[in-house]
């Protein structure tokens, strides 16, 4: 009896099925596409992975393989050997796209396969999300809306790991809260994201699942042109402060220079206003200098003209007192 049971398990493909983990049942709207993740054991890293279509394990047909060079309009497959997950994407799902297997080729043995069901519906799927790809930043939060039709407890599960079944919990050190946002909508919030938070998750309602891929990256740092100009101005001013300190033999500490620089960090609009004021002051100073220069030149010419007239008068006076005829200069 035991021998017969073992033979039956091998024949039906249940033996070794724990080496592959995937979703069990996903509801999809007809005409749309869906991506299914298949988590495999590390011993299968270098093995060929493929998608098999059909209800029976041994008679299913291979639709696409990771070692195939052919291009399919309906199916695509990719293998992430670091995460040990291969994904299959099925486009334009129909009622005929119901039974599939995540499969790994195992030369010399029976290929390892894991069954999943893909029922298509003309209306609203039993469980759905806004999108299957979500990106977040380290230390930040992300929200995922899980839409459902049936009553029951909504769970948030990580593929091959644990699930959060209550209103709050954690997965891989990342906080998870589940709240009802409205009729038929549960919002999952993942807070304090870490690198380990990346991976495939699922909204789970009874026996229906909807896979969601979460990617956690470093928060980008951007520098705008206004910020660049501000930093350049601040650097120039800090150098001026240090130079002036050296000339006056009055050392300025690094903390004082930092305080001065920080004190001048203002918004771009403030810098534009300050620039306008400075240009106005420079213009007024230039005009004042120009007027002063003209006035000084005019005064200098007037003094020179007066000195010349006085000298000419003295010449005439001296000559008259000597009894000689008066001769004007220039005659």
From TrEMBL:
<feature type="transmembrane region" description="Helical">
    <location>
        <begin position="276"/>
        <end position="295"/>
    </location>
</feature>
<protein>
    <submittedName>
        <fullName>Uncharacterized protein LOC115019857 isoform X1</fullName>
    </submittedName>
</protein>
<feature type="signal peptide">
    <location>
        <begin position="1"/>
        <end position="17"/>
    </location>
</feature>
<feature type="domain" description="Immunoglobulin">
    <location>
        <begin position="23"/>
        <end position="130"/>
    </location>
</feature>
<keyword id="KW-1133">Transmembrane helix</keyword>
<dbReference type="InterPro" id="IPR003599">
    <property type="entry name" value="Ig_sub"/>
</dbReference>
<keyword id="KW-0812">Transmembrane</keyword>
<dbReference type="InterPro" id="IPR013106">
    <property type="entry name" value="Ig_V-set"/>
</dbReference>
<keyword id="KW-0732">Signal</keyword>
<feature type="domain" description="Immunoglobulin">
    <location>
        <begin position="131"/>
        <end position="217"/>
    </location>
</feature>
<dbReference type="InterPro" id="IPR050671">
    <property type="entry name" value="CD300_family_receptors"/>
</dbReference>
<dbReference type="InterPro" id="IPR013783">
    <property type="entry name" value="Ig-like_fold"/>
</dbReference>
<dbReference type="GO" id="GO:0005886">
    <property type="term" value="C:plasma membrane"/>
</dbReference>
<dbReference type="InterPro" id="IPR036179">
    <property type="entry name" value="Ig-like_dom_sf"/>
</dbReference>
<dbReference type="GO" id="GO:0004888">
    <property type="term" value="F:transmembrane signaling receptor activity"/>
</dbReference>
<keyword id="KW-0472">Membrane</keyword>
<dbReference type="Pfam" id="PF07686">
    <property type="entry name" value="V-set"/>
</dbReference>
């Amino acid at each position: 009896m035991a021998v017969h049971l073992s033979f039956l398990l091998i024949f039906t493909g249940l033996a070794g099925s724990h080496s592959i983990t995937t979703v069990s049942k996903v509801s999809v709207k007809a005409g749309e596409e869906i991506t299914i993740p298949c988590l495999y054991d590390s011993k299968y890293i270098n093995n060929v992975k493929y998608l098999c279509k059909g209800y029976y394990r041994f008679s299913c047909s291979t639709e696409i393989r990771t070692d195939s060079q052919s291009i399919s309009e309906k199916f695509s497959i990719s293998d992430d050997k670091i995460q040990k997950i291969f994904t299959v994407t099925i486009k334009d799902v129909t009622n005929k796209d119901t039974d599939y297997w995540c499969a790994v080729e195992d030369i010399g043995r029976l290929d390892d396969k894991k069954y999943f069901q893909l029922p298509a519906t003309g209306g609203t799927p039993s469980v759905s999300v806004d999108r299957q790809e979500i990106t977040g930043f380290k230390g930040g939060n992300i929200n995922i809306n899980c839409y459902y039709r049936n009553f029951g407890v909504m769970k948030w599960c990580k593929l091959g790991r644990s699930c959060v079944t209550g209103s709050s919990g954690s997965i891989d050190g990342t906080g998870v809260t589940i709240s009802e946002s409205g009729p038929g909508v549960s919002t999952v919030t993942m807070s304090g994201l870490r690198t380990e938070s990346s991976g495939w998750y699922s909204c789970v309602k009874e026996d229906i699942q909807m896979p969601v891929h979460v990617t956690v990256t470093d928060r980008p740092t951007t520098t705008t042109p206004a910020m660049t100009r501000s930093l350049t101005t601040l650097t120039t001013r800090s150098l001026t402060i240090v130079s002036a300190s050296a000339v006056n033999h009055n050392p300025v500490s690094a903390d004082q220079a930092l305080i001065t620089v920080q004190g001048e960090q203002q918004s771009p609009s403030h810098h534009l206003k300050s620039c306008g004021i400075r240009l106005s002051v420079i213009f007024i100073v230039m005009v004042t200098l120009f007027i002063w220069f003209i006035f000084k030149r005019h005064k200098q010419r007037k003094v020179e003209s007066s000195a010349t007239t006085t000298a000419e008068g003295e010449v005439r006076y001296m000559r008259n007192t000597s009894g000689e005829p008066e001769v004007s200069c220039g005659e």
